[in-house]
């Protein structure tokens, strides 16, 4: 009889079983066919995960090395202890900057190869409502870890999901724009950012912040004569990493 993969959260049994967990870190507001032997099992899990997300109209998850280390370490732990359990510390072990995180773990035996056992776990994850909810969750990054014991033909697999702030696709350096003349206003020319953020401004004289100079424009004064003026823009957008960019200095001679 062919081994079967079943979704039985927090239960260890023969053949294939699963468990899942979702953890809120900061208060926030692929169809399954046989695994291709030519594709590394971790790559295959990533491909199936992102293909499934694409079918649901979702963006792909980025495979992040720092999360892979957590996932692989835990799969190795489950293999060495021969238990199916969640990593109680996975969220704190993942790279910093995390908004939220979740974890899927699974176990399968008797499918003949590492790839086939891993494929069975992935298929079972997709058939389980809780695990599928993690796979299609509001996350940006993923780690995948697979540990295989050839002697028993058993595989242990872990998926760790993380939501991290996105980076701007385009973040040009600002420029100080205007005629350098006493009493004139110069302006911060931000250029085109993608996507468009909200800006804050900070003006500097010889590298030191000018008190109260926080507008898009700055009026040149006697204290600036003979000194270098720069402007820093601080770009903010919900879901994106706050990004700071400093202009090249201009000499007010």
Can you characterise this structure?
The chain has 253 residues and is α+β, with helices and mostly antiparallel strands. The chain contains five helices and 13 strands. A hairpin with a 6-residue loop joins strand 11 and strand 12. Helix 1 (41-55) packs parallel to helix 4. The model is unreliable at 1-16 and 20-36 (pLDDT under 50).
Task: Summarize the entry for a quick read.
The protein has 253 residues and is of the alpha+beta class. 23% of the residues lie in helices and 30% in strands.
Question: Distance between termini?
Answer: 87 Å
Task: Supply the helix-strand structural class.
Answer: alpha+beta
Oligomer: single chain
Order of helices and strands: EHEHHEHHEEEEEEEEEE
Q: In total, how many beta strands? A: 13
Q: Helix share of residues?
A: 10-25%
Helix tally? Answer: 5
Mean pLDDT: 87
Strand order of the largest sheet: 1-3-5-4-2
What fraction of residues sit in β-strands?
25-35%
Unreliable spans: 1-16, 20-36
**Biggest sheet architecture:** 5 strands, mixed
Q: What is the gyration radius calculated from CA atoms?
A: 26 Å
Shape: elongated
Features:
single chain; elongated; 23% helix; alpha+beta
Topology overview:
Blueprint: E1 17-24, H1 41-55, E2 62-63, H2 65-81, H3 90-93, E3 100-109, H4 114-127, H5 129-135, E4 141-149, E5 154-163, E6 175-177, E7 185-189, E8 198-205, E9 208-209, E10 217-219, E11 227-236, E12 243-246, E13 250-252
Parallel strand pairs: 2-4
Antiparallel strand pairs: 1-3, 3-5, 4-5, 6-7, 7-10, 8-9, 8-11, 11-12, 11-13
Helix pairs in contact: 1-4
């Amino acid at each position: 009889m062919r081994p079967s993969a079943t979704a039985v959260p927090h239960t260890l049994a023969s053949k294939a079983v699963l468990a899942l967990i979702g953890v809120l870190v900061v208060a926030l507001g692929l169809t399954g066919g046989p695994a291709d032997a030519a594709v590394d099992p971790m790559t295959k899990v990533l491909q199936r995960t992102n293909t499934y997300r694409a079918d649901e109209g979702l963006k792909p998850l980025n495979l992040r090395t720092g999360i892979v280390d957590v996932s692989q370490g835990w799969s190795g732990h489950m293999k060495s202890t021969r238990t199916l359990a969640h990593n109680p510390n996975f969220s704190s072990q993942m790279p910093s900057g995390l908004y939220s995180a979740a974890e899927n773990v699974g176990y399968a035996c008797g499918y003949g190869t590492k790839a086939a056992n891993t494929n069975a776990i992935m298929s079972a994850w997709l058939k389980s409502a809780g695990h599928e909810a993690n796979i299609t969750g509001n996350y940006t990054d993923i780690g995948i870890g697979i540990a295989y014991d050839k002697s028993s033909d058993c595989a242990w697999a872990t998926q760790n999901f993380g939501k991290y702030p996105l980076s701007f696709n385009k973040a040009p350096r600002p420029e100080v724009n205007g005629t350098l003349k006493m009493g004139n206003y110069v302006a911060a020319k931000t250029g085109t950012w993608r996507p468009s953020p909200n800006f804050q401004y900070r003006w500097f004289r010889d590298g030191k912040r000018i008190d109260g100079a926080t507008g898009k424009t700055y009026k040149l004064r006697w204290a600036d004569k003979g000194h270098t003026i720069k402007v820093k823009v601080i770009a903010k957008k919900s879901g994106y990493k706050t990004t700071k960019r400093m202009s090249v200095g201009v000499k007010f001679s």
